[in-house]
């Protein structure tokens, strides 16, 4: 039981751990700015806002990534998760930047989340096909998904 | 392995996906108001607050729904999840409404969360009964739970 | 299938349920202060801020605890989860206290989260050892982890 479970989720767990490290990094940044809030209130406001936006989207990201990994295949889901973390890092750093910069908005990583969302739908659709039509396309779908996940690297 | 896992969670995954869509809808509303914040700061404040309250309760909801689905039975848990999403939609739309309207408060969907919470407790209790007394009431409990979940439809 | 799954997660589910109860307690506190916000805006600000900090860290905590419980062993993970909930309760109550008190900061329960984080890494490392070297240290690791979790009780 133990090995089978871990075999199917260990990449997802690794991505989750990296995201936790990133959350800790964000919180440390906020705490650092919080101590110097009297000198630079605008910077604290920006970093706190960036952290809040990232945290608001965090449960959604975790839920979609784990669903995609469990329903279809963990390798492309974890790869998309890594890409999402890179996008989030860029968003956070960009938000902390110059005041004159335009606010990067609330949404980020839309493309990655959309890809993971599609993976979930395909996984469930494939399960229903297996159940009601006894036709299993899982291997083809996994190959296509792995190939498609490379498209996320496009800027 | 794969089919067994997906068979037991696919309804939960579908509800999770719907909740993700709803989150995206909320974020789009916030972003739309954010662009017009100079014209109508009160509306932005309201929609941002409604979004924050919904997001604060989101991990709690996901955790309780998945626990209830895994411990007892996925069909009533998913049904309660759908009801929760409907309640949340009504809460969000009501919050965005007239300023004169009384604030709907921080809590919403208490009844649904309480029902899911009870499902978890019953599921764990049943597991302990199976383990220590070798008496399995799971089928009766599932039937009762499915029937009881219809009570959530009462206004 | 059902019994095997519940057997490996029931302690985690119980800790999750307790954390949900605690979230409800926090929200009730916020709602109570919100009604008296005209009399004491500082108290509302404090309790709302404490609640937001707790909620921001909540998905991270859930993710790490479940990963640790699934990858290695549920008993020490649940024990660490209980300790985290106690720390969070102390943090929340401390935050609500006197205004003159120094702000307790954004981070709390660092030690517990770090312990759970280590558990995840050890669990994945052990899985990779099993897979590539066919040497299973899981029982030793579980014993050491259970003993080490007692160290969290140190103040």
UniProtKB/TrEMBL annotation, chains A, B, C:
Any GO molecular function: enzyme activator activity
Any single GO BP term: leukotriene biosynthetic process
Predominant cellular place of this UniProt entry's protein: endoplasmic reticulum
InterPro entries associated with the record: 5_LipOase_AP, MAPEG, MAPEG-like_dom_sf, Membr-assoc_MAPEG
Name of the protein in its database record: Arachidonate 5-lipoxygenase-activating protein
Its job: Required for leukotriene biosynthesis by ALOX5 (5-lipoxygenase). Anchors ALOX5 to the membrane. Binds arachidonic acid, and could play an essential role in the transfer of arachidonic acid to ALOX5. Binds to MK-886, a compound that blocks the biosynthesis of leukotrienes.
UniProt subcellular location: Endoplasmic reticulum membrane; Nucleus membrane
Subunit annotation: Homotrimer. Interacts with LTC4S and ALOX5.
């Amino acid at each position: 039981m133990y090995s089978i479970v871990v075999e199917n989720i260990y990449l997802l767990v690794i991505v989750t751990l990296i995201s936790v490290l990133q959350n800790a990094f964000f919180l440390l940044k906020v705490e650092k700015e919080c101590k110097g809030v009297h000198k630079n209130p605008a910077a604290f406001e920006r970093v706190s806002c960036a952290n809040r936006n990232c945290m608001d989207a965090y449960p959604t990201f975790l839920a979609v990534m784990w669903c995609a990994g469990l329903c279809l295949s963990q390798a492309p889901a974890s790869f998309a998760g890594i890409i999402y973390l890179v996008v989030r890092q860029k968003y956070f750093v960009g938000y902390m930047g110059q005041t004159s910069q335009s606010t990067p908005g609330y949404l980020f990583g839309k493309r990655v989340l959309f890809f993971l969302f599609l993976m979930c739908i395909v996984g469930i659709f494939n399960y229903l096909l297996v159940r009601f039509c006894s036709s299993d396309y899982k291997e083809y779908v996994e190959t296509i998904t792995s190939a498609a996940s490379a498209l996320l690297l496009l800027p």
